Input
Amino acid sequence: MEDYNKIIESLGVRYIKSRNMKIAKAVTIDNFYDVENTIIVVNNGDVYFGPDQEKVSEGDMLFIPGGKSLSISFGSVTAQAISNEEFISNKKKYLQNANDSEINDFDVDGFSQVMFEAKVFDSVNFFSSLNITPFAIRNSTVLGDLIRLIINEDNSVKPGKNRIIKVNTEYLVVEVIRYILDNRLFVEQLVTNSTYFKDPRLIDIFSYIKKNIGGDLSNKVLARVANVSEDYVGQYFKMLTGINPQDYIEYQRMEAAVDLLRTTKKSIRDIGREVGYKDTAYFCRRFKMMFGIPAGKMRRRESLINI
Output
């Protein structure tokens, strides 16, 4: 348990956004995807997810780790199936912002959600690194109350709201981890993480990648950072994390690109260069391969966050 306490203490948690949504038209999204961690509490109606379309009923929650693609149905398991790209282009047709009265209206199907980042040593996406699948959370009034509290604060104009949101988002993340531990979910993945998050050489590599995301991150450079041989660094990294360093680096670069698409008006060419891609066409191909949509549509998706 002490290892888990150390991991939790090392987590940097950042609130991204939250909202109440109503289901305007039932829909199934074959490859729903988001780079951020998302937790949904169902207010009315049902949500279904995964290959077996597991049901999440009123009061229960669905946790989707950032970077994990899944099939998800809002409103009906038999709803029309569309791609994530089509969903993004026509989002208002299926999901709309809900006001307080609609959230409490039993005739209106909908959900509330909070999206956040959780990084160990400000470098590694904790939930993504576990390589876990999305999962349902049941019988947790604490998590449901936290989601609603965060949304209410975000919609308020009260002084100190940002502080309240920050504290309660951190509380939310701890409660998700406690739920995983209490229900003995993903035991093997947690054991692996508790081991490699204590390795100082690996932590140095993570930190160097974060600080030099647009620079030279070849195995030769990483070997020098970790003080191991170039021939060994890839094996060493994969042994501890389960992935090779260049795959990890590409994901970090793409995640940085998504953040720039969300927060700046920089051109796609400039964003590609900033995260380490000199060839814009190659950057765009890799981006679409990873996220299933072009970089330009990802930017448009972010502009629709507050529909």
Notes: The mean pLDDT is 88.
